[in-house]
Write a structure and sequence with these properties.
Distance between the termini: 76 Å
Order of helices and strands: HHEEEEEEEE
Number of strands: 8
Structural class: alpha+beta
Oligomer: single chain
CATH topology of the largest domain: Lipocalin
CATH class of the largest domain: Mainly Beta
Number of helices: 2
Amino acid sequence: MKKKILSWSTGAIMLLAIICVTVYSCKKNDQNNVSSSDDFSSAVVGVWSGTEGDSDYKLTFASNKTGLYEEFYHLSSGNTEHYFETFDYTMTDKDKGTIILHDDDGSYYAGDPEILYFEIVAENMILYRYHYGSRETICLLHKE
């Protein structure tokens, strides 16, 4: 009788230990599967637009980390040139990110891809790039 109780007790303790390890490892995996960029991308999803000089800019960010960059350049003749490209983006922080523009056929530019950067400040987006080592602001955008 003592052997049966000891056997059941040992089995119950082993089962309890296995359950504890399984639950702990599942919680740990759930925390590891959430990347910081997944948490932050919802801040930029949507349409952002603004004007700088003779150009209107419109950036559309999708939740799948892709988007559409559009520039409407107003010519002195009264006509408008529409320039657009698709892009991929990554969030580097809760309010900062990087945009990599694609060529017309969806590939990256020959050589180095065109890289733009953005920061969200007071519900506005600052779009900029680095030109010959200096930060050059392109436009201040607001969310539509």
